Amino acid sequence: MTDSATTHAPGRPGGDDRYKWTALTNTTAAVFMSALDGSIVLIALPAIFRGVHLDPLAPGNIAYLLWMIMGYRLVQAVLVVTVGRLGDMYGRVRIYNSGFAVFTFASILLSFDPFDGGHGAMWLIAWRVLQAVGGSMLTANSAAILTDAFPAEQRGFALGINQVAGLGGMFIGLVAGGLLSAWDWRAVFWVNVPVGVFFTLWAYRTLRETGKRGGGRIDWWGNITFAVGLSAVLIAVTFGLQPYGGHTMGWTNPLVDALIACGLLLLAAFVVIENRVAAPMIQLGLFRLRAFAFGNLAGLAISIGRGGMQFVLIIWLQGIWLPLHGYDYSDTPLWAGIFMLPLTAGFLAAGPVSGYLSDRIGSRGLATGGALLFGGSFLGLMLVPIDFSYWIFAVLIALNGIASGMFASPNSSSIMGSVPAPSRGVASGMRATFQNSGTAVSIGVFFSLMIAGLASNLPHTLTSGLRQQGVPAHVAAQVGGLPPVSSLFAAQLGVNPVQHLLRPSGALTHLTAAQQQALTGREFFPTLIAGPFHSGLVVVFAFGAALAFLAALASLLRGTSPAARTPEPREAATGDPHTRPDRYPSG
């Protein structure tokens, strides 16, 4: 690969070995922290809800839980392209450093909550939104900073380390959330403060611009239509998971339909605008590059599969497998994170190695093989019984982690190496948008498939099981008729839903001691939900496998990595790489 931007004159920062490792260390810490905060809350949610004195299974409180999870990812999906473009215009390091400061400031505000109940939840959601703004500024520009700092022959390794840190942070957050919340729920936010302060100061002292700024203007109409359109679609997905009327989900809600329709119209208008303005927010001409277009398509498919799988595995462990194997409900969130460590270990082992190899043998073979192995692990999980032998489960999720590592680093290297140097900030933002949007959409898609599978069998199964243990028919019917999403979230939050749902009616006090013990024990709910849940798992994993094989096909079609185009004379003179977006080669 040849790239004029990677040839540094002597004495320039980009050619300084010490500087490039400084840039790698700082940006790796940044993407790790940003990703960690995307997942650390998942395991800490039970402690957070207890800390703000909020009943997570009350009908109106499911929305708080969803927004605690989705709000952070939604903001990152929407903003990364915009802040990546700002990095191209005003300096990637400048935007990156500001992002570290914003992220740290929001972490400080999250570390204390002066309110209780719904107001306490809204405080946390609001400051997590600001934290996601800072995280977007970090992730959108980190890959561009590394691509500027490292020569082409080391770029895959550097981006691989960065990718491993990002996705590794997402997995490690599952364990860290359980450990820290066992001490104090605020500790999941405290952990960012000293790290954030140190790396913010270090970034301001050591990082400096090594790439050329593109100049130009902000595409306001493009930014508005993209942000509002994508937000509308992702908000609709969030509302679609909540019960509506007599339905188990909200996809029949007119508000959801209106949000999706308006969001898609705005995104269509965004494409039209980007083809007409002189300095577009997204350089649609980049999609003429095969490595860029097919690399992002493959990355989107893998992100959808990976994000949804993570939630499904947590629920599988917390709601069924761990209680059946003697773990108390209050302990299942922490142990679910621990038992998923093979997934993290596989990824951490494969990511740096694949990044190193992609610099020597190319990206296409590694990324395509990783996507195929990713799909194969889904097929293996489809065949695992609901009450599995752990070593089989551990091997399969380790293979899934290895597959993710094989894919992530080479795919990022191929995408970033295919674009011209002045466009790396916006290209990095576009890559992150596909990844974050895929993760956010995956939650809606996988949960919808799972809830649909549960809705057909769970109400009858739960009602019959309760009546067999002596629960009055009207109470059993009432509990059995509750939306399946409540049972899913109960499992995720480490709550025994049967005890929780029967307590308000007082039905437990009228049963024998043996019946009470059976209903509130570890095995009753997992045994009831196992059959319907496994039916949903098969559908979910089949969908994940299909996405993985689509990613493998897209990765194969990317071709050999082309050399990034050197800016033409007119662009070099104006400093605006967006002057002629139609000049990008097709690859």
UniProtKB/TrEMBL annotation:
Bias-annotated ranges (Basic and acidic residues): 567-587
Residue spans crossing the bilayer: 28-49, 61-83, 95-112, 124-146, 158-181, 187-204, 224-242, 254-273, 294-322, 334-353, 365-384, 390-408, 440-458, 533-557
Protein name: MFS transporter
Gene Ontology terms describing biological process: response to antibiotic
Annotated GO CC locations: plasma membrane
CDD domains on file: MFS_MMR_MDR_like
Domain (Major facilitator superfamily (MFS) profile) ranges: 23-563
Location(s), subcellular: Cell membrane
Main location: membrane
